[in-house]
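Now for one record.
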Amino acid sequence: MIETIVLLVVTLSASLTLCWSAKPRKDTEWQGEQAADMAGGLIIAAAAIGNLWLQLSGNESAILLLDSLAWYAALPLLVSVRVIQAAQCLGFNWYWDRMIWGRILLALCVVFELCRRSNQLDMILNVTSVMGAISFLIIALRPCPRPVLIISSVLWIGISVAYLALRPSEFIYLLAPLVIITATRLSKKNYDTSG
């Protein structure tokens, strides 16, 4: 129980760090990608708080919904941001505002419900894992290879293989991709002045 609580606190910390890193810099406009990262981080933070409450009190109310939102909406949203960033690295001029990212989150919730009703929720994680792996490789290698991002992409590929093989369902297994996304966001912020 103590290990689970510690992992949940680390997950909460990582999601809040992602939210903090997504805040706009002083005197700049809040970009759509930053808002999407913030929304994904907040959903995961809410699920972490809910799971902490479950561990401490035993009250299971609303945990299934929060966990499902974290796995099947927040994680795909965070990976979708990385897909667009990879497209930007390849030269596409795709810079979407907050309203578009809000619609993408809504669409991901619809896809979740459709997959849930047809017992195909694993497909969301499979597609998310593969798209994340491809995106992280592109981001790491374009325009010039960066060691921190290459390590992140190799770790993501390892996590993708593990997710495809093991099909995790517990919330704490969301910690690994969240840490990689947060670390990548922080390292890109150091390489990039646009944040």
